[in-house]
Each structure stands twice: as C-alpha cells, then as structure tokens.
Amino acid sequence: MDWLRDHLWEAWLAGAFALTIAELFSMELILIMLASGAVAGMVLAVAGAPFLVQALAAAAVSVGMIAFVRRPIAQRLHGGPDLEIGAERLVGERAVVTSEISGLVSGQIRLDGETWSAAAEGDTVLKPGEPVEVVAIDGATARVKPATSGELSDPTSD
Questions:
Q1: Is 0.70 topped by the overall pTM?
Q2: What's the pLDDT at 11?
Q3: Separation CA 139–CA 141 (nearest Å)
C-alpha cells in the first residue's frame, strides 16, 4: 500500500490510459470523460495534493465533462445532414422537359442525367426544353411543376 501512496500519480495515469483504451471499444464518449477526470487527479497527485482532494477533483472534472462537453462533441461526431437515398433525393431537383407533358398526358424529363416519366401538377402544359422542378416521385414517375427562377444547366449534357 505504501507503493501506491508513493506512486499515486502513476495509478491515476494508468487509470486514464485504461479508460481511454476502453473508450476505443465503446465509442460512447463516457469513458474518455472519466479519463479526463483521472488526468485531473494525476495532476493534483504530482502537485502533492492529498488523495481526498485528488479524488474530488477527478469526480468533479468527470461529471463536468459528461454534463457540459459530451453532448456537443457527440452531436458533432454523430450528427450531420439527413441522408436521402433513392428517388427521394431527387425531390426539389430541377430538370428539363424532353417530351410534352400536360395534365392529361404523361411525358418525359431529363433528371440527374436520366430520362424519367413525368406528370404535371395541375392543368399545366409543359413543352420540350422548359425547366421544371420535381415535387414528388410516385414509383417511376416524377411529379413536376414549372421551375420558378434561377439558372438551369442543360442536364442533357451529362
């Protein structure tokens, strides 16, 4: 027990190291916060503080890290834009009419480098070459409306 008292900073360091290694397997950002508390305990042990002070500081730093630091870091690491996959990612995209579309007759558009069947929203008649915006995807048919404003690159050049 005398060795542990004389080398307490090394025990804190070993604890911090073990918690850091364990964090690599859990990836929950809890154990790394506890490791930071162990580092605080180690610093106080090197400074010669009593064990009670070291333990209280380690606990306070660990709780503080979990309460105030973990959430923003976790959100930054695990967050990000919503990933839209499949046809749903095409909603809101712009396209060009390749064959006439009206409220009664489906036509075709050039969308994301591919030719899609398209139906117009409402009673709109869309002529070839007109820019449109995709408002929904129903199976293999894109529901489109006339594009409002802005530049549209020629999707047929893909």
A1: no
A2: 93
A3: 6
**Is residue 154's pLDDT more than 50?**
no
Long-range Cβ pairs for the range 139-146 (8 Å, 24+): 140/116, 141/106, 141/116, 141/117, 142/90, 142/95, 142/109, 142/111, 142/116, 142/117, 142/118, 143/118, 143/119, 144/95, 144/97, 144/101, 144/109, 144/118, 144/119, 144/120, 145/120, 145/121
- 3 state DSSP class of 90: helix
Rounded distance between C-alpha atoms, residue 90 and residue 114, angstroms: 11
3-class secondary structure, 158: coil
Give pLDDT, residue 156. 47
The band of 155, judged by pLDDT with boundaries at 50, 70 and 90, is very low
